[in-house]
Amino acid sequence: MEENKISYSEEEEQKSLLPFLEEKEKEGKAGQFSNVEEHWEEYKPEEELAGGGKTGNKDASEGVQDKSDSSMESLEHYLGDINNIQAMKYTDRICILTLQRNLKELNDIAKQKELAVQKARDKLSTCQLQIKVLAKQLEYVDIEIEKEEEAGNVTALSRLQAMHRRLCTELEKEKDFELKMALTLKENMLEMWQIETEQGKYEILREQLKKDEEELEMQYQERAQVRIWKEKIAALQAEENRRSREKKEEEAQKEYEERHKKVVEDAKRNHEKAVCFLRKSMARIHEKNAKEEVKTREHMERRIQAVLSLKTSITSNRAKLQTLQVWNKAMAFEAKKQEMKMREAILAEGGNVAKEIFLRKRLLEHEKEKQASREQQKSRKIEIVSRILQEKASILKQKKSQSCTKAIKSGGKLEDSSLWRMKTWRYIEKTCKHSAGAISQPWCSSSACSSAGERTASVGEISEKIPHDVLCESGEDEKERDKTLVEPEFPGLWSQECDLRKISKEETEPKQLATRVKEKGIFEKKMEEFQTGIFHKQMVSGRECKGRTFYSKPSCIHFKDFDVGQIYKKKIVLTNASYSVNFCRLVGMSDWLKDFISIHFDPPGKMSAGMSCEIVVTFKPMINETLEGEVMFMAQTGSFSVPLKCTAKRCMLALDKELIDFGSRVVGETISRTISLTNSGALGTRFKVQTSAGDSRTCRATAKSSPRRMVTRHFSDCVPEKEVSNSPVTSVVEKKEQICADHSEEMTYCVAQVEQHRTETSLSSSSAEQVGQDVLNSRSHLDTDSACNSVELSPEETPVEIMLGKVTEGEIGPFSSVKLQIIFVPAIPGDVRAEFVIMFDNADCKPLCFSAIGVSIDVPVWVPNPNVDLKICMYDRLYQDCIVIQSRAKVTLRLKFEVCKELSKHMELLPKTGYIQAQSSFSVQLKFLPRCSLPEDAGSYFNEETRVLEVPVTILIVDKAKKVNFTVHAIVTTSDLEISPARINFGYCTIYEAVQANVTLTNKSILPQEFGFVGLPEFVEIQPNDGLGILLPLESLTLDIIFKANETKEYSFELTCKSEINRQFKLSCKAVGVHPPLELSHSLVQFAATALNGVSTATLYVMNSHVSVNRFTHAVPRIGNGEVAPVGPTSFEFRVPEDCPVTITPSVGTVLPGKKSLIQVSFRPTLSDQLIREEAVRRLCRAAATGAEIQKRKKDEEGKKLSTAITKQLVRDVGSKYLTSLCNSEQPKSEELKPDSDAYMAAQAFLMRNFSGRFEKYIIPCFVASGHIDEKKGSENLSCSPYNTLYLELHCPAVAPCVVVTSDNGKNTVNFGDVAVGHRMIKRITIQNISPEKLELGFSVLNPNGPFLLVRPVGMLEPGENKTLVISFCPNENKWFFETLDIRTAKTTLTLSITGCGVMPTIVCSVEEVLNMGYVIAREKVTSTFKIQNTSTLTLRYSIQLDSLSSTRDKDQQRLPSFITSSLQRTEFVGTQNYNGLSVFSIFPTEGEIVAGKSQEFIVTFSPDHESLYYSDRLKVVLFGKNVAHVIHLKGAARDRPMFVEGGIPLDVPIESLAVTSPVSSPEALKGELQEPVKSILLVLEYIEGEGSPVPAMTELKVGAIQTAQFASKKNVEFSFDSLPLLQQKGFTVESVKGTVEPGQVKCISVSWVPPADFRADDPLLVTALLTLKGDIKESYQILFMAKVVSAYAPTK
After folding, report:
1. CA 1429, CA 1427: separation in Å to the nearest integer?
2. Which of 473, 1090, 1338, 1474 lies 20 to 30 Å from 1517, alpha-carbon distance?
3. In 743-794, which residue ranges form alpha helices assigned H by DSSP?
4. What is the DSSP pairing of strand 1130-1134 with strand 1254-1266?
5. What is the dihedral sign for C-alpha 723, 726, 729, 735?
């Protein structure tokens, strides 16, 4: 069975391992092939690279190739073997591995069985040995038993017997175990033999497995060898790659150095050019600034003169105004006198004065209106005539200007006078036709004229053959036309008249003229009717709006660069820009555009304001000419037009510069420069560059004494100097003339005169170019008679030094540019100038001119860089430069280099003497080491203010005694850094804080210097940038030296600052380290951004960690090296500044050793009270000023109604003085404003809404002292060291709140005031979102057991939205309540403080529990009063309630009657009620309020309607409709007769019958004195037995008479007792047996009882007596006397 299991498991393992081994085998194969392939793929490119490289690497590549070939062959061999092995062994590997595992398991089982057999054998041998030992012991015990039996020792015998039994038992167990182990051993031996048999079967397989493992090991070794070969080949390849990379890097480095060298040379050359151009530019800028300054001065002078003239005119006008005012006053006075005289005359005649004066005034007003209308008509006539004349003049001048411009345009093309004349007459005819056509179609406006003028002006430039006076006249016409253009948008029709002088004879015939005049009149009438009928004005809000009603996009229709024969389309959009509905329709276009332009426009009908429509304009050009005109439209508010342009292709040529300056060059050099010709137009042309006409060579002359020469040009007298100076050529000429004048040159070179028929008319750019061309075309000659003594050179002798390059002519296309090369080859020393002109095939393109200048120098040896600039140098630093010297000589020259004696200590040239070969260069090394004594040694070569050094250096040619000078420039500066102050004392610094000191580091050099503080100790920090940085020239930088003591000692150290040249500067520092007895858990508190009136809170601890004075185990608190602070309680105190919005709780306290104290820091930002007061005052002053302005306007209106100007002036003066005094008197002071005033609250709300935020830092000191703080004396009894002070830094950012309270003047406090306990009060708070964002609000949780409740919260607030919060207050205790409600937003929190006081309402009543109204005659009334006083602090709202009027009264009556239940269970307070349904008791007032501390009187009225002794009710005083504050039991009795007996215990039922019985009160009954039924009264007397002295039992009866008006005539009431002997016998004693009672009085009858001798205590005594009352009637009462004896010691129930 076990064998089957083993074989089954083996088969499973083989199956499970088979796929894994197959995958692994495949991966191994693929990996081997891929690695080999990758290796050879990598190797092939390297091989190819090596083969295709330079010749120097061929051998190496061949060697590598041989090696790689051999390695490839070996690899193929090994790979073939490996593949064969894998094909042969792969099918058996799985079986080998499985067999190996099975054999191993079989060996393990055999070993286990051998171990089990060995263990069984050991146990069996041990068991057998134990049996032998037990047998021996048993024999020994048997012997001992026999001995003891013989001896008779019972004790020992029993012991030995017990041992014998035990040994027998153990022996039996061991024998059983022996049998069991023998059986186990036998089974194990059998299994072991079976396993050995199995092993014998697999012996052959084991040998085969051994062979297979050896073969597999050989296969692994072969693979390892293949890998080694691959690694070798990879190493060879890597070596080859490294060599190729090194070679490439070397080549790249060489190329980089060459490029760098070239870039450096180019940079030097460019720098030289830039310096040259900069100098020229600076000269031009200075000249320009000087001119501008002159212009500014002239402008200021003109302004000053204008101001002075204005001042004089104001003075004269003021005098005139005063005179006019006096004259007006006199006239008014005279008119008043005339009026008074007229009144007197009318009164004398007896007429109506008022009527006559009114009629006279009406006549005067009518005359004035007539005169005004005449003057207005006259002025309008004059204006119309002047405008007509002006329009005529302007039309004439426009015609002249058009004819002149047309003549100018055609004059350039037609040279013959006849052609000119024909062209002029054609233009006149065309113009006249246009003007005649304007009468029938009025399209030409001022804007059209202007556009036509621009069009004619832009066609071509002014010809040179036009007479000067014509051009001047045309200029004047342009000025006048500019004046006339400032006209309305729609001029009159007279502007379309034509000049009759230019109309042909055919058009001047009388018939045609008459017809034209008639047509013109008809057209004018029709146009007036059309305009008055159709055009409407734009009226908005009662005002006429002027301006364009339609806007077009684009504003101008422009067809640019068109080709003839093509078709172009453009779309424009017309937008209605008027304020109302409008329409638009197409009228037409300019006549000359009709052949080329077509318009597609669908009228849109009525268009609202802002609506638009589209128009498509199609242009089909037939001629290649520029066209201009307009498209005309008609709208409801008038006509408008859109300009249209059609621009043909043209050339727009320009040069990037007009002057090429080659600078100073040595003879023999060749220098080239380029100039760019750019065409920005759409038409190309052909160009040709040549020297200017008349100059076959460059202009030059040679001076005898100076190499400087100048070519000057003189123009004709007709050209102004300003115009000449504007041209680029003459500017250079003028500059050179100025230079020659400054240096007093001996020779001046001249001069060409411009032909006198060439003139200039303006200062435009075209005139400047024309002048330049004239200068170039002029003929140069030499004046032999002049004082200059110049020498003229023939053209053959003068070489051409400035010439053109290869490109001298060619084609330039549209929107392209061409570069032209100019070459300068200096041959003769001196100045050289050449003028060039570029001609174009296109006749519309003007020739362009440019100049080239240069200076030639002839020296056998020269320095290419005559100014050696060493830039900025520092003292005691070595600077070197290489100076190159060039030679043009054909022999070797000896040179000697000299430096001036003053600077021989600081500068030298090496070598001092040298030889320069023919036509080669020589390099000299310049060494400059400026010493500190340079300013004293250099003398005049060094400027101490600018620190500029200019050293002349001479190169002496020894053989020829010639000198060549060059200058060495340098700016010498120091390298010092200054630290101020040089010493810092940080003072006392605790180990918990850092002390900062500021030092200023100044760079004394004019070079930027890098600096850095190095070797800083760990307790020092330097900021910014950790003490490292760069100082600009002469810059000062403030550094923060931060010292933080790490232990208690005295510090003395130096800080080292190093510069970039390794100079050191020291800074000395001192400090004392302090360890305070206390420490703060946080020395920096950063509050979150807190809104105004919000609160942010942070907590920290004050800790006392000083528990031992042993300074060797830990750091102890002390000051420097002073004494150690004592161990014990340590006190602290925070001192908060007064204006600081921070609260620290607790601010004073004591901390025990090893303990800590919690500190709470609160930040509550608020607005400054002074700021609020100032804003409130400003707002009040603004409001007062507004009110004063309103009053002033009212006064002015009243003053205008007065008749005379004197009264007006007086009123204004008095009013203004009154208002100013009122404003001054009513201006409030900020100190007088109260915080609860409206102005204060409004200012606070305004500032809060406009608060922009602030950030403040506070440093709060915490003083520390040893010992306890006395509660009475405080901290006065403690000594505090200022060096132990701790500091708490607070960062407090305040921001504007997102939400503000708008109700209750913006207060954040909700005060409910005093509220009665148990009652609820509701308040509404309005909040507003003043931020621009939508806010989601959250609320803090109020105390759920507290009195405050947020009834209605708000979830979301839109920007600017107001919402209401509802908060209720219901106190449950008599105390003050306070809570805070936080309204949270995403950024800020608004805190509402909610307060309220719960007050327990208390009252005091003058009647405590019962108010007895007494006995009353039925159907009569009696009143009684009581008072209730409010003893609480709030006003009480009360109401009086009676149980008889209760709403639950009906339900209560459904219960059992009270007389059925026991007296203890009776809760009914309402007794007998009236039959009439009215209440027996009534109270006034029933409700109201009682102010705190006041009292209220109440009136109770008792009005019974029938006889009863049980009238009762309950009165409740209810406060606030809820609480019953006091209860009064109302009682009363009513009798039909004025007598009553009261006392004892009544024996009748207190509840009346439901049946109403009317009382019997007939006269017969009264007369018969019918006997009333006898009423019974029980008197109970209890005698107490057992006391020391016996006291009789006492009780009493009351007999009363009611005083009433009903029985006022009756007699008194008499009473008497019967059966007195019996009473006395039984021990009863009655004081008053008989008596009388007056009305309104009550008589008390006292009854006492002493038990008689024969009295039995167990039998109560009962005696009856009759009490008779006599008044109006006779009444009898049966009195039952009950007596009993009660023990004094008996418990009472």
Report:
1. 7
2. 1474
3. 765-777
4. antiparallel
5. positive
